Amino acid sequence: MAEKLVILLVSEQTVPNVQFLKWFFKNNRETVDILFISTEKMENKKKSHDIIEAILLSETHIAKWNKICVDENSLDDFENKVDSLLSEWNHSAFAVNITGGTKIMSLSAYTYFQDKENCEIFYQPLNQPLQRLFPEHAEFGISELLNLKEYMTAHGIVFSTTNKCVKEYDYNKNVYESVIRDNRKLISPLVEMQNNAYFKNIFKRKDSLNLKQVPDEKFTTQDGKLLDKNLVCDVVSKFGFDIENFSNAELRYITGGWFEEFVYQKIKDTFGLSDDKIALNVRIEKFNDKNELDVIYIKDNCLHVIECKSFVDGKEGYKVLNDALYKLQAIMKSKFGLNAKSYLYTKSNITKDSALNRAKEFGIEVVDGDKL
User: Fold this and answer.
1) Partners of 303 in the beta sheet?
2) Among 62, 71, 214, 295, which residue's beta carbon has the most beta carbons within 10 A?
3) What CA–CA distance (Å, rounded) separates 123 from 22?
4) Which residues lie closer than 8 Å to 158 by C-beta, 6 or more apart?
């Protein structure tokens, strides 16, 4: 058993406790025990488990950890259960973080532990420095940033990404002006090709194919209309790709992946983010619910989530825009904490008040052609 016990109050927001532990271990290299004071509701959501899994990704200064569930609205229940557990443990020092939990739990923890010898009590308001409330007041900057894996793990999310780009940033910065602007209509057949069952099946089996060897009649829309094979090959060549060794990644790049790569590379370059702080084409899973995100990154202890839509022009584009806003709002609401921010990036200029008002209502910042 360690000499010091760290006490954490558990609530929906897990990241503040992970941040506190990273800060604590950075400034105190001693080994400690950890006690989570939680509720049945939070433990049904595995909140304590998610916090410990996130911190164990980088820290090994934990001798053991335990949890108790209290009545979130009862001071007496809090005191009785903590008393019962601590009677079995023997610690000479305490560090208590009351940022989580309910107001009653925070009040109970402060009241209970302020009478302990060698005790410090901490609290961190949203987007503010960490404060030591007891025994004397002090403020500390939380400079220890979480990486994406720690952030996702703290939210019970399994995620994967390769961060692999088809083209370099120098190319993607200019690809719109050099290729796409004058060939937008010519790209449409490749969107149809991407949704074609024949090509989908080929790319499931092979990394690449020779477009010259594909029969002309296979170049069709989903409803069977014939596409111009020569036109498809011409567009592929305009992007500098080999029509005799054309990959699914290159097809995806032409039909919109170029914009996702540009946004990813621009943000990474602008903020100087390392690979563990930013990700492209992310797949996430929580409780068997799977989603895909275009670009995500961590900056200043805040998660930023970006949905990319290269173009949202016209009636069809407006539907794509609305669908993207609803998708992003649903993911943010169900997956991430209060401090997360969401964005929709597009090369188009959005002027429809209805779309802009909906984005504002959902808390989504729109970054369109003018802002880009």
Assistant:
1) 298
2) 295
3) 15
4) 152, 284, 285, 286
Q: What is the pTM of this model?
A: 0.92
pLDDT band at 142 (very low <50, low <70, confident <90, very high): confident
Cα separation, 372 vs 368, whole angstroms = 6
As a dihedral over the C-alpha atoms of residue 112, residue 68, residue 18, residue 143, rounded to 10 degrees, the angle is: 10
Phi, psi for residue 163 in degrees, rounded to 5: 55, 30
Q: If we measure between CA atoms, which residue out of 262, 260, 253, 263 comes closest to residue 190?
A: 253
| Integer CA distances (angstroms), 95 to 108, 160, 279, in order | 15, 35, 35
Rounded Cα distance between 364 and 332, Å, is 10
pLDDT(300) > 90: no
Tokens 């929709």 sit on residue: 344
Tokens for 61, please give them.
């200064």
Bridge partners of 65, per DSSP, are: 34
What the block records as the tokens of 172 is 């993607």
**Do 72 and 102 touch, CB atoms closer than 8 A?**
yes
By CB atoms closer than 10 A (0-12, 13-18, 19+), residue 193 is buried
- Band of the pLDDT at 339, cuts 50, 70, 90? confident
Dihedral over alpha carbons 313, 316, 318, 324 (to 10 degrees): -110
**Six-digit token pair at 305?**
């989530």
Specify whether the CB–CB gap between 67 and 36 falls below 8 A. Answer: yes
Strands 93-97 and 62-69: unpaired
